[in-house]
Amino acid sequence: MPVAFSGKRLGLLLLLFLSLSGGSPAGPTMTIQDASQSQANSLTKMQAGLNESSSEHMTTTPTVNWQSQGSPSDHLTLGHNVSMLGPDLTTQEFKQAIKANVSSLTFVEYEVLLPGVSGTSIEKNITLDSATGIELSCRLDSKYFHLKNLQMTWKRGNETIEHINKTENSWGIQLKILDNSKLGSYSCTLKGEEISAIFHLQVPKIEGKEKPIVSYEGDTAVMICKSFGYTPIAWTWYRTNGSEQIAINDSLLADKYVINSVSANVTHLKILKLTREDDGVYWCEAAFELGKSKGKLKLKILSFMVPLKPFLAIVAEVVILVTIIFLYEMYSKKKCAEDEKEFDQVEQLKSEESNGLENSSARHRKI
Amino acid sequence: PSANVGRAPGPPDGGWGWAGVFGAFVSIGFAYAFPKGVAIFFKEIQGFFGTSYSEIAWVSSIMLATTYGAGPISSILVNRYGSRPVVIFGGLLCGIGMVSAAFCTSILQLYICVGFITGFGLALNLQPSVIIIGKYFLKRRPIANGLAMAGSPVMLCTLAPLNQFLFDNFGWRGSFLILGAILLNCCVAGALFRPIGAATALVKTQATEEGKDALKEEVTKDAMEMSNPTGVPMETKMEEEGGKDCCEKINKYLDFSLFKHRGFLIYLIGNVLMFLGFFAPIVFLAPYAKHIGIDEYSAAFLLSILAIVDMIARPTTGIIANSKWVRPRIQYFFSFAIAFNGACHLLCPLASGYTGLVIYSVFFGLAFGMVCAMLFETLMDLVGAARFTSAVGLVTIAECCTILLGPPIGGTLIDTFGDYKYMFIKCGAVMVLAGTFLFIMNYYNYRMLAKEEKERKAKEEDPKSVRTENEGRNNWNKETAQDGPELEPLREEQEGLKKEVNGT
């Protein structure tokens, strides 16, 4: 798919050119391609040279465009490397660091081209794991240029957003996503026509395992959770007890649970001395700057009797087959022996006959 | 005595032989497909023991190395006890290995249980299965070989989803337990390997085990003489040269005099060279597909296409190899198959996109099946069924090294150059070289054999030399056969047989 691919390329380009700017010592600031043109508090846009370029803006911006011909829910992710802050920073200090540097935030623009078909809705998922500036804009198809009195409303849930940046045929809003409260779904709707686009701003998803992990009583189980692309700040494990979720404290129950992280993106939960009660659902929760994300894992505990039954069944089948084969062989050998005895007797009789008078006929028979 | 002439002691070429082929199918299938099928559990086991992937991959490598490396031991045991007890013991060993693997608590124990014990059990399965085909078939041997070798892709296609199913339902420990039971089916395959040739002797006398084996060897050798006269002059000369007692004893268990056999040496060198580039493309096909942008499931599907084409190609090659045009020149057909394989690999880098790779997989499956179907058939053709037991053991231990080296060398090439095409070029070049070498050397071998055949016929026409040859053969019989009073009547029958043979 061309759109996904170009978006990926863009994402890679952005990741390549992200680096700490010289001025700020700490904070996830981003520099753009032409560093000399970065300005505080200004909307800077980089042109990736993809589709349309707005001639009104001097500077370059990362523009991500989705064509409506693509699948309705493209997923574009831009990763920002948070690790430069150091692993010890708590979420609170982090937020303060963000606020201090909000003035030098760069905005990333996401644009959607609204299709010409009325009654449609496009959805886009945007994954964010750390504080960023976002500009969402909806661009109209050329079909609508003849219409007058075009009005586009931006909403988040039920509340309407006031400050809309309108250009010739696109409406955009600027958002500073600093904490979890700003995440959610933002939609732009064209009045009159029932056309809308929804942007879902979310934290990165953690994948658990769909299939249950099977283990046995008395054995050890290891559950692994991975975060792809984004590095979480902290991992927590939960266990579902009825309808509650209880956090697993490995220092408290050190001989039962062991939690360790091989790397920042991966966490392992080791459960020792399994019993029937350990059966159930487990959650691994990754804490990001902008929120938390959970992955689900299922643990199934079996007793050793369960695989033993098929095992014994197959062993029985093998023994039966081998016995049948050997019995058949003995039977066919006996038959052979009996046939041979008969044959021998017939031959003896024949030879006795041939030793008698009829020589010629015996000779014929022998040949 | 004439009663036994009707039951020709040569290979029956049918009858119970087909049951033996089915047993060989199962046995060979497990031996080749099991190391690959076990790889499905590796990811989970890796997380369980907290090791790296390469440490887990050693399990498969140890299993494969043991299966090939224990070849000579397998040959010795078959020479001593016959195919059936060895296969049954091998099946039991596999079962024990996997069941004990289900209770392992460290990666080292897995190496021992799954790697060594199961690998050794599979080795005891593989060689006798191939040997028993040579004992039961002569005229239809290529078909039998092709059918038996088809067990490998069929088992692989069955084991892969089965292993996944077992893993989803029982976890890796339960799966190993059940797989141990499934491997016990090799014992069933072994039970089908009824000893052949000594059936008539058993009825009449109570010959010892060793006596039976010696008789079998002689009987089959006679059968070989009947239909493959080119092989005989070499063998009789070789055996007469091995005069010392201890050398004879060793040669009875494992025939080292094979290293003087021209055909055997040609086969050995050619095959050792070929295996350097044989398995690497399969190992790297899926990663290569992912590398050029194909998704995981389509990449896995390429391997399925390969297996399905392989499945069909093996018996078909057997039938083609059995036809009267190809059978006398089967060595050329084998060399062609190897070179064809090499050509496929050389052309692979030119394949662009998924369609190109699908076409490559089809041709690769075809070539792979052709080579595998004839792998043991050509060896049997060169050394004869009697010495095949030892030959297969010596060949597999020599191939063991190159089989294990092939994929890592390919991997190093990929890592150094960052491009898969050099690996394909290396494999293709090695195989084309091996194919050409085998072709040229076998041409030379056929010419020498034809020359020797002419000399032998010239000698036979001379009546004096016939008597001396027969006497020489009788002396040799007395030397090699274990003497016992029970065998006297048998040997007389034998010579009566020989006279009939020479007459026809």
From TrEMBL, chain B:
Bilayer topology: Multi-pass membrane protein
Gene3D superfamilies: MFS general substrate transporter like domains
Annotated Pfam families: MFS_1 (PF07690)
SUPFAM superfamilies named in the record: MFS general substrate transporter (SSF103473)
Region (Disordered): 453-504
Primary localization class, coarse: membrane
Reaction(s) catalysed by this chain's protein: 4-methyl-2-oxopentanoate(out) + H(+)(out) = 4-methyl-2-oxopentanoate(in) + H(+)(in); 3-methyl-2-oxobutanoate(out) + H(+)(out) = 3-methyl-2-oxobutanoate(in) + H(+)(in)
Keywords: Cell membrane, Membrane, Symport, Transmembrane, Transmembrane helix, Transport
InterPro entries xrefs: MCT (IPR004743), MFS (IPR011701), MFS_dom (IPR020846), MFS_trans_sf (IPR036259), Proton-linked_MCT (IPR050327)
Domain of life: Eukaryota
Basic and acidic residues bias locations: 453-472, 488-504
Location(s) in or outside the cell: Basolateral cell membrane
Name of the featured protein: Monocarboxylate transporter 2
PROSITE patterns associated with the record: MFS
Bilayer-spanning residue ranges: 15-35, 56-77, 89-122, 143-162, 174-193, 264-285, 297-313, 333-352, 358-376, 388-410, 422-444
Annotated Major facilitator superfamily (MFS) profile domain residues: 17-446
Signal peptide as annotated in the record: none
Family listed: Belongs to the major facilitator superfamily. Monocarboxylate porter (TC 2.A.1.13) family.
A molecular function (GO) term: monocarboxylic acid transmembrane transporter activity
Gene Ontology cellular component annotations, sorted alphabetically: basolateral plasma membrane
